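Last lecture ended with a question: if I hand you only a sequence, what can you say about the shape of the protein? Today we answer it with a concrete record. The protein is Transcription factor WD40-like family. Below, first the input exactly as provided, then the predicted structure, then a couple of comments.
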Amino acid sequence: MANGTIAVFHRDSDGLWSAEGYHKISLGKGTSSVTTLTIVSGRIWAAYRNCVVVIDPRNLKIEKVFMAHPKRDSQVKGMQWLGDGVWISIRLDSTIRLFHAHTYEHLQDVNIEPFITKMLGTNKLDFLHLRITSLVITNRRMWIGTGTGVIVSVPLNEQSNSKKQEIYSDPSTERVAASSFIPYCDMEQAQVSYHGHKDSIRFLLPIPAGSAKPKMVLDTEVRKLLVVSGGDGYIDFRLGEENEEINGNIEEGPSHIVKPRDMSHIIVWEMTCTSEPPSSEKCGVDT
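The predicted structure:
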């Protein structure tokens, strides 16, 4: 909530929401808000200012607090968990940071600004708004939306020296977990979409496709997946805005022209995944 607390609602013995009220967990001063929540390996990760607070959902006690960014005035924007890693984005920043899901160790930083500049050039972008506004992981790919409307897709691979099986334990909580894999960003195989929005990416949403029955997004049986982005306007970065034709409705005289490409848009990508096991899963992306 906006006052730095989390409200926890309980269910009764019949599985219905209890009418006896709720439990509050205070993460800090009421001057800052809790910006996002996610589930990581059976624990709640809550973002408060530049820190992440790890909470045990059974006893609602705080287990760990660690800094996601060294600047105290920064703010965690989004969190995405896969395997033994959690990718975290920071508000008004073009860098994402990878942390270990069990040891909370800082593992990798990825700044997407040089990659986007290399792919699209500097004359088509407003670097004041080249910040990360949306983040989602699906089928071992991380989709990154920016404030300039550019969307980047990065495969997540395990490094060759990190395949050793490990067991993580915490004596204070008697918590034991087996290692999975650490989702490092492989920027050499990253892709940038030439189709984007004219303003910030509002959301990125993965949707299973090609089946009448709903399935988990990370289910290896899903062969096709749609990724939907939402934002203001549409632009082909290969052409830019200067080559667009003005085909719209004129409202209140010629000075008020509504271009179809300036309206709110959603863009849909289709991912085709092989039937290989997750450790070697490959996906192709089509717009």
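Comments.
1. The first strand starts at residue 5 and ends at 11.
2. The radius of gyration is 21 Å.
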